[in-house]
Amino acid sequence: MVLRIGLTGGIGSGKSTVAALLTGSGATVVDTDAIARQIALPGGAAMSGIREAFGAEFIDAAGGLDRERMRALAFSDDTARRRLEAILHPLIGVETERQAEASSAPVVVFDVPLLVESERWRARVHKVLVVDCTEATQIARVVARSGWTAEAVQAVIDRQASRARRRACADAVIFNEGISPEQLRDELRSLWQAWAQAATGQPPHA
Description:
Order of helices and strands: EHEHHHHEHEHHHEH
Structural class: alpha/beta
Strand order of the largest sheet: 2-3-1-4-5
Mean pLDDT: 92
């Protein structure tokens, strides 16, 4: 049996760090954000639909999606956001399943930032792992790494599911705040051992 884990968390929660640790443990991680970026590159599968729906002003000089312009539109216009999602989500779904089916790992982790907001995802995974921290920490981390203003980060947080809603949907929660990288690794290792044994019926080797 291949165990399918949904990994999610708010911006700045440390979800990417957890995904990297899971990859190191032997899981296949399917990154839906990476797929979304790939299909909106020059020549990507989404580009003809984006051009048709939004016009040439949303295409950058190289022929890919102008991400900054589209981000501004999507945050200010829910109708435009839904139009973009209608183009991207089916394509992301196809590539997600292709990558999952190509994996030989006993555990496949689907890294989905908006898993809780998308009802279809909960039905596609066996368990949900949420990476959590306070909003203040989210803001501080994103400002430090990206140069965004605190207000811009807060706007993203406000668009995402609340911490309470994510935690309510979780089968496991990692509170990634005030712990060392080693403590994070140890906490995740315990989960990994349980998952790997559930998938294979055998105690894990690592």
